[in-house]
């Protein structure tokens, strides 16, 4: 823990500032455009698109471009499915089933492509959050187009800044196809259990619980990303819970005074920079910024009682993290590479 604490506070390198600035710029431009158009409620669509910029940290420009295009496709798919479910007024159990199936496919794709950040978290979160946007707020195609435009902007911004020299790539040990399938099954099992428990608490709980269930499984064990060791899973789960609680405190400070849509949208834009700056240093600390970012943009899209929103997220996080830990502990598999 001492090492992690020192890693979080040591001086940031120039390339870390560049990366965080690129990610923030990917939301700043479309976010301000929506504010100028008087539609801060739609910032959720461009925010999910802007998460494309998070991919490719510490990679060469060419590799970052490729991975951001691939990650953008995953994010856009999640937003498109979510928009379709919203337009169809999908029943809660349909949302859980769709997110479970999407998590399985998304885990296969993201791990096969070796995308970083690891796992299908952003894709499944996009699906669930967009599915809960009230139907009629925006035409599905228009919402997907906003996301696509933000993705394109992020990919272009990703070409800026100093390029990293190409380093010798160590020989990569390819896991058997069964390893990919087993890890994807962990995600599907965790998300289905968390979604089912969330439905018992209420439909609004299901999405946050399912997203939280994916977090522990993104831990990388000593044998790689497809084999999360239980100690690493528990450590990441602790970060998820403590970081979310800290983020809920920040959200309360921003949301309870009821400042109005424009200040909340500006807060969403501002929070992305510190989120990404700390993401690779200390996941729990980054969540202190990322949690209010997510909650504020979902509140703008689908307003709810602030106190209910804040208290519900505590239970959702615990339920989801518990499901993720259980999936990692129960579903084991030997690598036959």
Question: Explain this structure to me?
Answer:
By secondary structure, the protein is mostly helical. The protein has one domain (13-163, 175-330). It is built from 13 helices and no strands. The chain has helices at 2-9, 14-36, 43-50, 61-87, 92-112, 121-131, 140-157, 177-201, 203-214, 230-255, 261-279, 283-301, 306-330. The longest helix has 27 residues, at 61-87. It is globular, with a radius of gyration of 19 Å.
Question: What labels would you give this structure?
Answer:
13 helices, mainly alpha, 337 residues
Quick summary of this structure?
The chain is mainly α and 337 residues long. The protein is built from 13 helices and no strands.
Extended strand count:
0
Regions with little confidence, pLDDT below 50 for 5+ residues: none
Which structural class should the secondary elements be placed in? mainly alpha
| Largest sheet data | none
Q: What is the H/E string? A: HHHHHHHHHHHHH
Estimated helix fraction:
over 70%
Cα-atom Rg, whole angstroms? 19 Å
Instruction: State which percent range the strand residues make up.
Output: under 5%
The N- and C-terminal alpha carbons lie at a distance of 33 Å
Shape: globular
Helices and strands in order:
Layout: H1 2-9, H2 14-36, H3 43-50, H4 61-87, H5 92-112, H6 121-131, H7 140-157, H8 177-201, H9 203-214, H10 230-255, H11 261-279, H12 283-301, H13 306-330
């Amino acid at each position: 823990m001492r090492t992690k604490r020192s890693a979080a506070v040591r001086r940031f390198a120039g390339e870390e500032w560049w990366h965080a600035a690129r990610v923030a710029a990917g939301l700043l431009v479309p976010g301000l455009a929506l504010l100028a158009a008087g539609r801060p409620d739609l910032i959720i669509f461009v925010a999910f698109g802007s998460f494309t910029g998070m991919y490719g940290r510490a990679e060469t420009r060419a590799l970052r471009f490729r991975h951001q295009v691939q990650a953008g496709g995953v994010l856009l798919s999640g937003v498109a499915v979510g928009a379709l479910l919203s337009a169809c007024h999908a029943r809660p159990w349909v949302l859980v089933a769709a997110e479970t199936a999407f998590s399985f496919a998304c885990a296969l794709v993201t791990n096969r492509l070796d995308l970083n950040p690891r796992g299908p978290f952003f894709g499944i979160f996009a699906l669930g959050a967009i599915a809960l946007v009230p139907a009629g707020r925006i035409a599905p195609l228009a919402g997907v187009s906003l996301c696509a435009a933000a993705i394109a902007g992020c990919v272009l911004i990703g070409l800026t800044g100093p390029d990293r020299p190409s380093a010798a790539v160590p020989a990569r040990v390819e896991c058997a196809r069964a390893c990919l399938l087993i890890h994807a099954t962990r995600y599907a099992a965790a998300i289905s259990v968390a979604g089912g428990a969330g439905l018992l608490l209420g439909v609004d709980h299901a999405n946050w619980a399912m997203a939280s269930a994916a977090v522990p499984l993104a831990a990388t064990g000593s044998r790689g990303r497809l084999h999360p060791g239980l100690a690493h899973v528990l450590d990441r789960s602790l970060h998820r819970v403590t970081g979310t609680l800290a983020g809920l405190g920040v959200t309360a400070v921003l949301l309870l005074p009821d400042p109005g849509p424009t200040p909340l949208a500006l807060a969403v834009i501002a929070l992305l920079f510190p989120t990404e700056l700390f993401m690779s240093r200390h996941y729990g600390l980054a969540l202190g910024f990322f949690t209010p970012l997510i909650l504020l943009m979902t509140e703008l899209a689908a307003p709810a009682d602030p106190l209910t929103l804040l208290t519900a997220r505590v239970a959702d996080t615990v339920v989801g993290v518990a499901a993720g830990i259980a999936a990692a502990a129960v579903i084991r598999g030997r690598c036959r590479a």
